[in-house]
Amino acid sequence: MKIAIAGAGAMGSRIGLMLHQAGNEVILIDRWPDHIKAIRENGLIGEFEDHKVVAHLPIYSPEEIVEDHTSVDLVVALTKSMQLRAMFQDIQPIISEKTFVFCLLNGLGHDETLSEFIPRENIIFGTTTWTAGLAGPGHASLVGTGSIEMENLDPSGKAFTLEVLEVFQKAGLNPVYSNNVRYSIWKKACINGTLNGLCTILDCNIADFGSLSIAGDLIETIVGEFASVAEVEGIILDQPQVIQAIEATYDVKAQGLHFPSMYQDLIRNHRKTEIDYINGAVWQKGMNYQISTPYCAFLTQLIHAKEELLEAK
């Protein structure tokens, strides 16, 4: 299968590399000049737990996707949420009427953005528990294992979605087909909507947050706000189950020593965050539905204030 990775950061590098190793034709698309330069000169370095690989994959900036590029079978969307629209505006030359998009972004509302560029029957949504990091430009740190859940937005897209599932299975990405991926997306949004923003504001890792006496109250309140909004959209979240999933990440043998991606973006790299697509999305939806979400609103405002203080780009 010919596959484009739209957003070849840490996670995009991991998925692109594993798909390449399974024999697929993979191209990477990213906006970071140093990352592009490093991969072109030295290949994509993948540092697994017990071995290292170097893959010489073609990589382009979105602006370099010009008309003479042939279309791809699948685009895996792994940009930051706020970069999704601009990315798909730029990569239209590789998208044909037969091209599918598999969206693995965190957050909410991406179906509306992608529907501007892709027919709904060609959109696949999913979530993943894989993790990845970048040790530097062109150098991905790929420890641990994970899985991917996927489902087509429109029933007519199921046949190709199952083809994608087979391709991802052969690549060792542990995919499963879901009959309710929207529930999983909301559940993961709850995890991100608590740990990402709170660890960033409190300047701590997940285990340190979990050790706080007030952690349980904060988690319960924020999950409650997510659940109230999700219910209006037909998603009934099992709040105790979601809270249990969040608390399971506190274990230092699991993800406890991990600093969430929002922390890494803002505190370490002074980059703008995806808060508007997580807590901010719940706040906005809540206003539309006349549901009060004060914790999501306040956390969104605090993160934006921190972005200003750090002059995030």
Automatic annotation (TrEMBL):
Residues 3-154 form the Ketopantoate reductase N-terminal domain. It holds the Pfam family ApbA_C. The keyword NADP applies. Keywords: NADP, Oxidoreductase, Pantothenate biosynthesis. It catalyses: (R)-pantoate + NADP(+) = 2-dehydropantoate + NADPH + H(+). The keyword Lipoprotein does not apply. Its EC number is 1.1.1.169. It comes from the Bacteria. Pathway: Cofactor biosynthesis; (R)-pantothenate biosynthesis; (R)-pantoate from 3-methyl-2-oxobutanoate: step 2/2. InterPro entries: 6-PGluconate_DH-like_C_sf, 6PGD_dom2, ApbA, Ketopantoate_reductase, KPA_reductase, KPR_N, NAD(P)-bd_dom_sf. Residues 180-307 form the Ketopantoate reductase C-terminal domain. Belongs to the ketopantoate reductase family. This is 2-dehydropantoate 2-reductase.
